[in-house]
Amino acid sequence: MVLIEDAELRNLRYVFENREHGGKLLAEKLKKYAGKNTVVLAIPSGGVPIGKIIAEKLNSKFDLVITRKVQLPDNPEAGFGAVSFDGEVVVNLEWARELSLTDEIINFQIEKARKEVGHRVNKFRGKRLFPSLKGKIVIIADDGLATGYTMLAAIKSIKKLEPKKLIVAVPTASRGAISLVEREVDEIYCLNVRESFVFAVADAYQEWHDMSENEVLSYLRNKT
Predict the structure, then answer these.
(1) Claim to verify: residue 76 and residue 120 sit in the same structural domain
(2) Are 73 and 176 in the same domain?
(3) pTM of the entire structure?
(4) Domain containing 85: what range?
């Protein structure tokens, strides 16, 4: 695995104006993949502006890989795993046990995430077939990695489709999240790597908001 970062941005906060700014900077780093049978897959919601801009700059096909974090019951912003569109589930059982989560609670939260994935697939993809990825260069984009489990679930699902090369592209990530996914991909492009104990994706952006489903749909209407 190769990590491509911007050393000047390491451990800094508020380095991107917004998601679009982060996407443009990533696209510049990825420009060698323009015109090389590349497919960009964005994780909604926050990864959609990032992936859309990368796909436009590389003149590549653009689509979605839909995953959802398995939330902690008392803190929906935090997760101990993720579920992907094809049913792939990754969870940190050791951490769940440390938090005294029972099997019943764990399974309930997984099922809750699975239902949300189904909702998003229907909302954002409908009956549209998933693109063929065999032998192609695939870039999975998101707006950041906190724990890394949402990306890991996406990676495991996409690897089943036999891409030639698999790349992760995110403006920001925790060092721990990078460690979780680095053995599963060929390259990681992450401009802002942070090693702080407390990590929030939002802290990399000067302007941040949770994207609505309507915002995601507005990007998809102009799909590359």
Answers:
(1) yes
(2) no
(3) 0.95
(4) 69-124
